Amino acid sequence: MYNQIDANKRKTNILFAIFFSFIIAISVFMAEYMGYGYGMVIVAFVFSMGMTWFSYYHSDKIALKTTGAREIKQADSPYVYRMVENLCITSGMPMPKVHIIDSPALNAFATGRDPEHASIALTRGIIEALENEELEGVIAHELSHIKNYDIRVMTVVVVLVGMISLLTDMFFRARLFGGGGDDNKNSGGAMVVIGLVLLILSPIIANLIKLAISRKREYLADASGALMTRYPEGLARALEKISKSSVPLKTANTATAHLFISNPFKGSKMKSMFSTHPPIAQRIQALKEM
User: For residue 248, how many other CB atoms are within 10 A of its CB?
Assistant: First the structure.
């Protein structure tokens, strides 16, 4: 478990290093080779931060609202509430708000910017379908997302992706309308051709890195959840049952898909193609190897 946790944290850091290097390369190309200066980079960063600020503080409420999650108290579902409470006591975490989604789909998610402002949501289907140890494994996985500050990590990723998209958009708009840059100074160089190709492909590359980071955080939550329960088999069996379910979560959308324990778009090849989750079979294999 500890090896899995260390490996996934290390891989996340490597992906972040690639992300930052990518942004620096674009910035240097636009400033030095195209003659735009670094003002465009600063503007893109400020805009990206501004757009993400609202999401960071209010995305949890939006996610819960759009998925139809209903907050419960201990009297509403003592079995679920006490299981969450016991795991929080075990791991030394504050108790998150507990929600239930009235759907037969087998899924769950956690949201919140930090452990003090967190919520966990479970579908009615997953509560009814899983055994005690299996449901405990799922809840531990979601609590691990909170404990590992994964919402904060993905918020930083969104800022970086937004910054790259804005830089690309601003560059092409400037070229379209003839603003900025020094064509005479920088024309004809191989570096300019490489830089232009990089700019064209940058939104795709940025989103691929975002997906890779999201997948590593899923592996990290699996390992951390297994450490919390000391029983990897429980989550592995839960994932097996989840993978066999063909019921989609109708209230899920592409903006909230990355939050769930598994891809909520069952049977949708187009949406699964760019999934934020690694294949369940690989996650089960990693858990069984623990």
Answer: 18
pLDDT number for residue 188: 47
Q: Residue 223 phi/psi, 5° resolution? A: -65, -40
Q: What pLDDT shows up at residue 33?
A: 67
Contact 276, 150 (CB under 8 A): no
Q: What is the CA radius of gyration of the chain?
A: 21
121 DSSP β-pair partners: 99, 109
Q: Is residue 111 helix, strand or coil?
A: strand
User: How many other C-beta atoms lie within 10 A of the C-beta of residue 11?
Assistant: 17
In Å, how far are 37, 76, 137, 202 from 177, measured between CA atoms?
17, 60, 55, 21
Give CA–CA dist 94/72, Å, rounded: 16
List, for residues 120-175, the tens digit of each pLDDT value.
Answer: 999 999 999 999 999 999 999 999 999 988 877 877 777 777 777 777 777 777 66
The residues assigned a catalytic role are 142
CA distances from 229 to 6, 8, 107, 128 (A): 18, 19, 19, 20
In the block, residue with structure tokens 């294949």: 279
What is 2-9+51-153+198-288's CATH number? 3.30.2010.10
Q: What angle do CA 155, 27, 191 make, to 5 degrees?
A: 135
At 67-85, the pLDDT tens digits run: 999 999 999 999 999 999 9
Over pLDDT 90: what percentage of the chain? 41
Q: In the chain, what are the domain boundaries?
A: 2-9+51-153+198-288
